[in-house]
Amino acid sequence: MRPLLVYFVAAILIGAMPKTSHAGLEKPEAIDGSTYSIIPSVLNTVVTTNGQTDSYIRLFNGGLASARFDLTIVNPSTGATVGTPFSINVPSHASLQYRIGELFGALYANTTVSVGTAWIVYVKSSEASAGYQHVYYNDGTKFFENASSCTNLLNQSTLAASNTLVLTNLTSSLLVNGSNSYPTSVVIHNYSATAATYRLIGVNARTGQTLGTKDVTIQANQTFSAPFFNPANATTLANSLQNNFGWTPISSGSTFELWANLLIIDTSGATPQASATHSIGNNTLGGSFAMTSACALNAPISTALSATTTTTFDGAIAGANGQSGTFSITVPASGSTSAAPENMMTTKAAIEKPQATTNVTGTLRIGSTTITLTGTYNTVTRSLTVTGGGYTFTGGVIAGSTFSGTYTGPGGALGGFAGDKRSATVTSRGYCGTFSGHDNEGAISGTFNFVVSGSGAVSGSIASDDGSSARITGTASATLVSGYATGSETTAAFSGTWHRHVDGYELR
What we know:
- There is one protein chain.
- A hairpin with a 5-residue loop joins strand 28 (about 400-410) and strand 29.
- It is globular, with a radius of gyration of 24 Å.
- The two termini are about 25 Å apart.
- By secondary structure, the chain is mainly β.
- The protein has 2 domains: about 10-295, Sandwich (Hypothetical Protein Tm1070, Chain: A); about 310-505, no CATH class.
């Protein structure tokens, strides 16, 4: 099957930094900081006998599209805005790093300030999975530390929005060599009472491009650990994630691909019952430093299904050999509201969490045949499993509005599915089709299906005849569908061309 869809070392990015500058332009207007996340004690070239210390701000976008981050720098002594408020666009799943001195430059705040001082940075974004990390680095001692101070942790938001754990800015092979070497170690612990298979998705932190995917099965209450890159032994997944993703970072001209992000999902579609951490070794000073914590810009979105009314998901399936169909799954009122997922970054005891299940019913329509489905929904893991007519659907509910996962069926049928929460006022519209063509592995063909919900949300699946499948997500307007899969929509059909990515398919 074809595939479907770290730490900080700024030394080689620092270059020549000014030792002196002029007082900056300050604007006395007060701003309402209640809509921002506040990054305190941001250091701009603080020089001591041991070298100079600077702050680095990393902006992470966990969404499916490019996201805008709005930033304002404030003088903590006067409360005045320094320079001009500015915006930075961050690609999907990228994590862009900026030295605070850069942010005073012409492309951003457009002002000059005194060095050796500390500032406050206000930052916000409308993206539900947006976050940041604040890191100190001293160029003399090579000391660095994670200075992030969070109201909400990034993984709380990414779990709520997409059932995904995230580790940001893992060091690539460009930072794991020579006398100043900074290797990243990744640790994933499965605290469930059953084994689970997690998909590790490597992402280029500079571009957001998917580098590759690898599945790892972790037994109950056991731990998987691996360096992101290990030059000594890079042949197996447990010895080097970078090599197993097939990534060779660019080091040319002004482009240095120093970091990768790691996305971690449960292949069943359920919320990962796992903790994920990473640390970075410092060969100059000896030892390792915990670098996991990153802050969310927004509180986690609600993930609970209604406790007082039923929820119905309408969706589509796409399987190998042209199999397609639609389904409806109804989850009754649970009588209680599930809390937002707790912080998956904290240490967990090696025990299973309490479970709560609700019986669900539904129908599957393949051609003229209607099949009755029954199953259960777990309000803790947000996993949903239904069976009927020889079919088994296993998936998870994302953000309380989307149900997606994989299925198996009679005669070895397999594929993917996705559906959205039914609107009370607007009827969902379903679209299906086939594709064929060639990629670098030869001829390829398959089936796609998606549903446009009453709210305009798009969800579905695409499956090639070799058995691989990918999920379609996005939004729809009157004439255009866009998102993880994009295409033109009419009142009767979905049409366009398709393009193969390492992380799946894109329809245009």
